[in-house]
Amino acid sequence: MIYEKYVDRSNIEIDCLTASILNALLVEKECFEYVIISYKVNILKQIKQRNKEIKIYLLFFTF
Description:
Number of helices: 2
Mean pLDDT: 46
Radius of gyration: 11 Å
Number of strands: 4
């Protein structure tokens, strides 16, 4: 399995496996050609505080 890494607005890398745990809508198993954009300030803080709502948007990324 390929774990592509993407960067959110805070320049914090998030791998596809983490995104899956956060229930992001991953339509491709390898997350290929997708970028994760978070509108929150600190995504790592959200990952630690899973009781709060986490909003992650997946936008199709074209080169």
